[in-house]
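Researcher: I'm comparing several assemblies side by side, and this is the next one on my list. It has 1059 residues spread over three chains. Same procedure as the others: predict the full complex and return the structure.
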Amino acid sequence: MDFIPHDDKTIAEMLNIIGVAKIEDLFKDVPKDLIINGLKLPEGLSEPDVLKNLQELGKKNKVYSNSFLGAGCYFHYIPTLVDFVISRSEFYTSYTPYQAEASQGYLQAIYEYQSIISRLTQMDVANASMYDGSTALAEAAIMASIITRKNQVIVLEGVHPEYIEVVKTYCWGQKIELKIVPEEKLEEELTQEVAAVLFQSPNFFGDIEDVLVLANKIKENASNCLVIQCMTDPTCLGVLKPPGETEVDIFVAEGQSFGISPSFGGPGLGIFATRKKFLRKIPGRLVGKTKEIDGGREGFLLTLQAREQHIRREKASSNICTNQALCSLSALVYLVSLGKTGLCEIATQNIQKAHYVKNKIKLIPGYEILNTRPTYNEFIVKCPNIDSLIEECKKFNLLPPLPLSKYYHEMKDVALVCVTESNSRESIEKFIKALELANNNKEGKM
Amino acid sequence: MDEKDSLIFDKGINKAQTNFIPSLDVECDALKNIIPSNLIREEVQIPDIPEVEIVRHFVKLSKINYGVDTGIYPLGSCTMKYNPKINEHIARITEFSQIHPLQEENEGALRLIHHISNILGEITGMEGFTLQPAAGAHGELVGLLIMKKFFETKGVLKNKIIVPDSAHGTNPASAKMAGFSIIELQSNENGEVPLDHLEFAMQQGDVAGIMLTNPNTLGVFDRQIKDITEIVHKYGGLCYYDGANLNPMLGICRPKDMGFDIVHLNLHKTFSTPHGGGGPGSGPVGVTKELIPFLPIPCIISTEKGIVCADENSRSIGRIKAFWGNFGIILRAYVYLLSLGAEGLKRVGQVAVLNANYLRIQLQKRYNLPYNRTCQHEFVLSDKDMPNEVTAEDIAKRLLDYGFYAPTIYFPLIVSGALMIEPTETESKNSLDNFIEVMNKIYNEAVNEPEILKKAPHNTPVGRLDAVSAARNPVLKD
Amino acid sequence: MVNIIEQEFPNELKYLQTHEWVRIQDNIATVGITDFAQHQLGDIVYVELPEIGITFDKGSNVAEIESVKAVGELVMPLSGKILEVNTDLADNPESVNSSPYGTGWMVKIEFSNKSEIDELLTVEAYKEIVEAEKE
């Protein structure tokens, strides 16, 4: 394919005006020994041919009819309005809105996104986005370290294992000491030297924390320590208490559940929200509302840019530049499409369906639900024969739950099951059948 | 231009909107029996908004927003080229959009990541790639952490990074995030890196390496590039290539041959994926063979068993993002690469440079051009000598009145009152001539009616905004 | 371009090369940024001041001064303890622009080493530095 809108005559004309004989003359500053003799790549393909090529490749990925897999990436129903809006090329082909006057549309949309996240989380301020939940959590840890001037951070087990690894990498870069601690050992490990405690709720195993109790415990033991909550499926905020009401200082989440297709795990959306007192330390872009200099009309613009890398350079606390703006727009459209009624209903359906599945599982011998606390849409199950379970699920064209041994070698035969509003009754019945069959297989083997 | 719309929150009505909720087809329990009431929130304060109101709102907002599909985006170092629609179509196919990162049957996705790594390797000369980073700056952080790990493994303390004064702000910011401190080098009068200062800095013994973009932010190809990388290597340092300015070099020359050890690319610049108003992007990082062990996990590698994922590697810098990187963006770039092929990619580089030089020749007739030499994909004008003290900002704002987007202003810092212009290869001669005509008109206005420039823009939904109040008393939500 | 003569250079103050001014009374030093500095930065939007009671060495960065397009740092002219900070700047950061030597003051230090005062610049020496930077 060719996207270059010149013919040879035009190119010749332009070369003439520039005053060179051929295009190669424009590369005279490149040393001759660096000039390559073309690329060793195949010829380009036309649109129908490239489509065929990718369709063939796509066939090597399996699309299931229904999913029981979550673990940080979720299948939710995405309203058609989301794709309608983000397909408008004035949005998706636009640049970062530095020239505010020509970008009022997008700036207003980001302002609305910041506002809606604030309303949803009851936190004072949200930024325009981070790359994803994992890097948002890592940058929250760094922000806490800068604010408190301390360089120890505690992460509770129960944070998504991949998130923990990302936080570890970022902390290593900044010489921040990271301790991974089981929740019951938290009080022992909390000292006045700790900048922040990072935890996830609902956690990786599905448990909903009593965040207020946890936050108070942290503050009692280390008064200056920041409380940082992360979340991998924020649809739960349709029902669960928001971080703004539970003493959380910085809240981060993976916003993929808000209208973004799974897409093999990316792009996602790093939601980042905090309290007013930390406003000047927040990383990432912020859109503000203001008035014209002359004239009274209201408008939107990127503000507090003096925090960011293009001004602070090596004094910046974060290097983030391009973020996930179009994903913020997706999230905004998702949330307004549902509205308060829809959000509450979706969250309720997640809870009810997961609860329903749990109750069904409890009736199958050989299986044990391991969660002792309330859960949202994920929970962990000890299985008699997890390999068989996975096989049986696939036979029903169901994406099987995650075997936890992927991250925790010692947790063989434990599955992390996810049930959302997108799991039909029919798929649930097949899932239960798959569990039963897997159990029979185990017995057969004995 | 069209007018603004009120905030979406003003459009709520007192009626539940349930168009997007599936029916609840299982038996339910009372919520209080499942979740204790102290964990349950009060109603979310998000209005219920009718579907038609939502659609009209966003259509209205789109009409007061400028995109590449609207017109030219002459922004330097951004490479705002045309975003092919076939990329968008393929990204939405269920076989790519509805797959879970942790599912086992992912061979198509892994093959894609592996194949694009090979293609990017051919383009840059680099021997190993990670597609994990979500943006250019993220790639910079990865590259710098690789440097850090490389020296740590050798037991050598090198805690400084050299960055030229013309560098993009993310370079020093990324270096800091990786734990380095910065030595800033002043560019010489040709806009190039002075070799003697470079050698002096490297002689101190604690420099891990240099971060460079070539062509640099002045659009100038540093002719001494091989000398630069040789000097850095002589003193045991590594060379990092900021790929933001790779567009003119496609099919012409390669960072590896220039002597670079680590490269990041911006798929949302050079490789046509949409800018999205600020993302999502993707910033893959390529390295030489020696540095492959330090790449972040997971790595996609080719074995006799086929394409597999390797996530156990003690020399890796670790994980830098959950899952696989911005796959949806990687996919779009892959389609672009297959669409263009060898010849197509080479033409991109050639025509990007042709278009930039054409604009340069025409605009320098009136505007000040501090570095008057053949440029690559971009060049920088200055507002120095503008009549009536008209500034770069005035020119930029007046361009908006004519329905154009403005170039990058006040960057690079080494040119006072800079206007950095990069047309890209997807602008037609007509489009360029229109831009030149308007820039000429603006120049005449600067001579005869400067006030109209100083108060510009006049035709946009809002005029110049009070950024000072916005920063003193920030209003960041409704 | 502001004419150098129009800018203020109070004679009784001492200066730093990094554009801070210092007013010394007994063993207390009041510190702020100069007229030249505020002009370079533009409209000040926010000043982040240090905590009271902390001791810093001469040469440390103790405060950050933000405008819309830039960030400056306040450098300690003398080693000592922060006694007082100008809390009024939280609501009125523009004082740094309108009255850099008056209501725009930033910190008061109880300094520990009198000999460091000799290392500060006189108004004449500071004026020369500003002249040189203007070119």
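Model: For your comparison table: Chain B has 15 helices and twelve strands.
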